[in-house]
Structure formats: structure tokens, C-alpha cells
Queue: 2 jobs
Job 1
Amino acid sequence: MPELPEVETVVRELQAKVKGKTLSSVDPVFAKVFPPDSDSKKLQGLTISSVSRRAKYIIFNFSQEDLHLIAHLRMTGEFLFDQDGENNRFIRCIFHFTDRTVMYFCDMRKFGRLEICSDLAEYFKKMGIEPLGDDLTVAFLQKRLQSSRSIKALLLDQSLIAGIGNIYADEILFLSKINPQRSGLQITAKELLALKKNIKTVLQKAIDDTGITLPDYRERANKDFYYNVYGRAKQACKICGHKIEKIRLGGRGTNFCPVCQP
DNA sequence: CACAGCTCCTGGCAGC
DNA sequence: TGCTGCCAGGAGCTGT
């Protein structure tokens, strides 16, 4: 499922494929994915000037600067082109370009969303900082993680840091040697430093790998090899050999090593 | 206000 | 084999 690194990769692919193309029509096949009040007809005739990203949101920018198309892939959303998309069973919206190419928004589980937005600052006003930007500092973490909630829940809170999902939260906590159940209040200054470092390195490495060694992010095929804890419940910890445990925390499957993350 | 828990959705898989 | 029912989870919403 796409998290920030995968979304970043999708944005780069989209930028290469659709920048400069002009929409001739937009056909919302499934109303919930593209809500009726967002009036997709407004996009007709607009030329895509760039594709960018905020957290896990994809932003299509147009020649008309006060209109944006925002896409969120959620669990299973994807953009497919031409023959790759036309036979897909889960087409939710079809974008026709004037050069006769076609972009399909497909999403098996119907969680993904498309939305038209005229004010990006307003749209993202509740969104937390970008984890790969300069805003993520030890001082920021020290201040914003002061909460009785679990550190795992805090890492997943998009209004604090925007873009960390369930998989990378588990990986970041493993590398930081922090038990996911601990409260934000209990995290020491030394651990905050490790957290800050690992948030950046885990996400950046995933971006690099998704773009280079794992082009098919949809199936990060060898999970067992790639991840330390995610998807490895009951298997041996790569550091100490103890069984990786899986629990539910804040409604999320949470994998960790009880020895390395006491 | 802060936080926990529910909801959406469907393919895949464990268990019987 | 064939069925049932649970699980996966991002983010918005509802309830406490």
C-alpha cells in the first residue's frame, strides 16, 4: 500500500507522463471516489503544469493556478495509462487528454479519493510537517510528542507529522529501539534524536529503493528481506533472534521485537 | 479538548 | 472442496 515514499515515486512518474497534457474530458465512474459537488467538468480544457505532493496527497497543478486536483490513493489506488488501465476491473475515474491518451484512476477498495481544490493552504491547514523537510527537528519532536498517547499513535497522527504510515512507523520504532506501546511522555532526549534520524533515513531509503531497485512498489516482493518487523510476526528478529510479536495498537497491526524494543 | 474507536471496502486467506 | 468470517489499513467521523 502506498505510503509517502510510494506516493513520491508515483508523483515523479505522473510528472513525467502528464505534465503539459490538456484534459479534454473527465468521466467520474464512481461517485464516491470523485464527489459530485467537486464538479469534475471544471477541469475540462485545463493543461497540467506540474504534479506535486503534500504528505500522501498527490496534487495536479494546472495552467489555471487557482484550481488543483487532489488525489489520495489510500490503500489500493493507482493511476494507469491507456491499455494498462482500460481493462482494469476497478476503474473509478477516467481522464481523457486532447492527445487521445487516457489516464485511469483505479482503486479496488474504493477508499481512494479525488477532489478539486481552489486553495491548497486551506485544504492542508490541519496537516502536520513534512518528515523529510527541515521542520522535523529534535526540538519539534520534544514539544509535539508530549502526550499520553502511544508513540506509535503519535507517529501515525498526520496532524503532527504528515506522511508516516503503519509500515514505516513500525520500522522507524524498531530502528530507534523504542517499544510502540510507550507513551510519548516517556521518550527520552536520546531516543528523540534516534527517532528524528530514523524517520528521515527510513523514508528516504524507501524512496530511493522504490525508484531504483523496487520499481514495482505494489508488491514489495520480498517483505521478509526488506523489512525488519513489518509482515514478520513469529519470525526471528534480525538483530537478536527473538520472535517478532504482533499486537493491535490503536486499531493497527503493530509488529515489534520485545527484546530490542523493551 | 483529547483521545479511542468505528467506518468505509473488497480480495485473500485461515479455519472448519 | 467449499463455505464462513476475519484481516488489511488512511483518514474522517462519532462517541466518551
Note: DSSP finds eight helices and ten strands in chain A.
Job 2
Amino acid sequence: MSLLEQQEVDTARFRAYGQVDPSITDAFRRLAGPRIQAARGGVLRAQGSANPAIYVLHEGWVTSGVVVAGGARQIVKIHMPGDMMGMPSFAGLTACETLQACTAVEASVVPFDAMARIFREEPALAAFLFLITQEERAALMDRLASVGRTGAINRVATLILELHKRLLAHRPDTGDEFEAPLTQEEIADVLGLTGVHVNRTLRALRARGIAEWRHGRLRILDRDALRGLGRIACRERGRHVDWINGPGSAPAVATSAA
Amino acid sequence: MSLLEQQEVDTARFRAYGQVDPSITDAFRRLAGPRIQAARGGVLRAQGSANPAIYVLHEGWVTSGVVVAGGARQIVKIHMPGDMMGMPSFAGLTACETLQACTAVEASVVPFDAMARIFREEPALAAFLFLITQEERAALMDRLASVGRTGAINRVATLILELHKRLLAHRPDTGDEFEAPLTQEEIADVLGLTGVHVNRTLRALRARGIAEWRHGRLRILDRDALRGLGRIACRERGRHVDWINGPGSAPAVATSAA
DNA sequence: CGACTTCTTGAGGAGACTCAAGGGTGGTGG
DNA sequence: CCACCACCCTTGAGTCTCCTCAAGAAGTCG
């Protein structure tokens, strides 16, 4: 992977915010730490492990999940390239979530001290991390609403639309058919269902000509029908970011980057 | 309410982090904006409204909820005095959550510009807001696991334990019987159940001598049994906060507060 | 005291789960 | 190159949790 590609991946999440001062993404690249790899099924960081770090995902998909007594697993986030991983555990002494590879994976570890440096020296980058975290929180709220208040077919439809939207943000050339390397068991753990019932639900979507999802490959056949089934209110796109580099203050990044 | 009390409430969330530099909480007090009130059932801020602000809750309980197509509601957070409210909507152009009063409520609005000022001028406070948000995210992950992967009685037990723990952090003199002013319908919307089934579940807890929750008053009778039913893994208490005011840098707050 | 909300309980039904077994698919090693 | 193995997908039958609908009781507020 070329250095250019690597940088593109690293900052995908920031680019999504639109007109970002380039010095912000530059600042973030300087903080990237050592690279790590994992094979499918490998655990990058287990729930309960001490001194949790933060990761940036470069290649592959990763699930973030918590385990309840009895051994059941709930996946709380599907990470795709460009995502930051493990942040919810940052406040604690031990990790509250397990990061597990869905595919072969490449990521880098953000050194623990780097976060302190960001808040001291890169206020604009800190503000972006704050906004990204709020966005993650809103996504989690939507998932909770989906699991708590809608049926199986609605949950699957919502997930398909979410995955497609996120892939599209990352790679604008994503079409209606794309790789979505999750097993039905993993989908079930995301949606609060069982693997068997996910299978039946996917069969129903296939029979109705709405979507096909087999062997890690997802094809959207009828987007309007999917949207009709997905029950979560659409958000206004766009964000308040002006305040980060806004008027009334010296450019926040420039002062410290000098 | 005296000024002293008000300050105590404002900073309860920060005190929970332990040894916090007093200048941090001082800095936060200076940002408090105009006060607002609401009666039970009143909406402080509706989902979809433009230019969402952030609130600090002083008195009473508030639910934060999202609505799915069909009219069903999922409550994603129960706010108690000292909490910051509305932060997930900060990144968006419109609010993604409705803030509704469970009781008579008093709160203050944090001016929009105040957040920008925090990140520019109060890096230690910004870091605390970041940590608090990560903690909220972890709480949401636990709720999702509870709703997605456990039965009704487990969800209710988990909720009771969570409420008790949070009240205890805020008021150490909270006993095993305390005010928990939620209707069964509201509890249902938190846990992804129906009001009818919450009623039956509470009856079961009562019949087994584990807990009583009637008319907004909650009594814990058998904490061990509750813990046995609550299926979410306990977290290590304590947090990494040293890095905020840690060595190797000038005190982050002092430089800008001068 | 009256209207409204909230709580309570019953009966019946639907969606999702459990258990179980067979069939594909891809990877690995001989 | 083929055979085998592990994992994943698929489908059926029966069960159970939780929902829906409904109506009455209890509590609350003006």
C-alpha cells in the first residue's frame, strides 16, 4: 500500500466532515503509531484487558462487541476502513468492548499519550474527535431504537442501508452490489436476533426482490422498498463545523503546530 | 436554591471523576447560560429542531428519546441532575433526540459558542467532556446489549441497578428506597418492551421479594438477586485522568485561565 | 368531586427462539 | 488435483416470550 493511499484511508473519517483545514488531517497523521495485523476471527483487543488503546482501521472490517453473562454477544459497531476503534474504553481502566476481525485486518495503534497531546496542542483535532464521538453516539442511539422498537425485517433493512451509506461515504464508486463480509451469525449479533432468524429474514428479502446478501456479498435490488422497511428517521446531512476554525480566534491549529 | 447548591449540582458529573483540578470545574461554571424550566411532560427540545444546543440539568429527571417511523419511541438515556443533555445532536444541523421532562425540571442552556471556547481555551475541560461522552457511549453499548440479548426481567434488573448506582454517585446518602419517577410506559420505552409487560415483570420482581417499584418510588429488597439477574459485565471503577493534567506539560488549564 | 393518567389483570396470538439435521462452500493438506 | 474438514448456510417443527386488545381499578390533580 502506497503512502498516499495510507493517508487517504487514515483521514477518511475527517474528510467526511467537508471543508476541513488540511492542517488538521496533517496533525492526525503525525500521531499514527505502530501497525498491527490480524486474520479473520482474530481478537485485536479483548473486553476486560488493561490499559485500552485506540486504533485506526486501515484495511478490512472489525466488530466491536460486548458480552453479557451467559455468553451471548452483542455487536455494537461494525468498523470499516478509516474508523477509529476502541474509543469508548478510553475513559476506563479496562476495555469495555472486544475488537474482533471480520476479515484480514490492518490497523495502527494510537499511542496513549497521543490523545493528551491532541487536547493540549491540537484543539481543532480534539474538537473533531469530540464531534466524531457524538456522531457515533447518535448512531448507537439509532441502533438501539431499531433493536428495541422494530421487527426483524426492519432491523435488517436498516442495517443494509447504513452499511451502504457508510461505504458510499468512504468510496463514492460503491454500487448497489458490494462486499459486506459478515456471517449471518454476526448480523444476528448486531441486530439482537439469532442466526437462524436472520437467515429466514434474508430469505424473505430475497423472495420479495428487495435485497440479496449471501456469502459476504450484498446486492440491493429495491432501494425504495428498503427505505420503506428501515424505520429510523433520516438525519439532516451536514454539520456544524465552522466553530472549530471559526472567526473570532486565531486559527486553532496554526498556533500550536508552529 | 442557593448558589452553593447550584454549583454542586453543576459539577456533579465532574466530581465523579475523582481528583479533578478545581480550575476545571471553575471554568465550566463560567460557561453556564440562561436557565429554563419545564413541567412534567414538557418538551425541552424536540427531535428535528434546528441548531440544537446543549443543556445542563439541575433539578428533576429528563428522558432523551428517538422516534421511529410508526410513532414508537425509544428512550436512549435517563438524565438526572448534574448530567449534560443533548450532546449527541451537537454535530448535526438538527437535533436527533427529544428531551422530555419526567418531572418538574430546571436546566440551563450552554451557549453554542461556549463549546468552541472550551476547545480553544480550556483543553482540560474539553478532555473531560470527551471522556464523559465516551462514558455515555459505553453506557449506551451496555443498554443495547441488555435490550438485544437479555429477557425482560434481566433488563428491568439492570435498569434498577444502573439507576441506583447513578443516584448513589450523585447523592451518597441514597438508600435502598428512593424516588425513581418513571411511569411503566417510560420504563418500557427505555427497555424495548411494552408497558403491559413491564407491569407483569415488576409484579414478578415484587412476588419474588427482589424489588418494588410503584408510583415513582423504587425499593430494592434483594440486591444480590438483582445482580444475579442483571447480565451486563461490571466495569472496573476508576479512570485514566492523569493525562489531562499530567506531567510533561504546563498545567493545561492554568495557561488559558490566566 | 370528577376527569385524566397510570396501573393492573386476563385472554389470545404472533414473532422470534430452540433444537435438530442436512447441504454448500472454501480452505488445506496429501 | 482431489479429498477431506471446518465453517457457514438452509430449512423444518415445536415452544415460549412478549405483544395486542380489552376492560376495570387505583391513584393524581385541578
Note: Chain A touches chain B through 68 residues (CB under 8 Å).
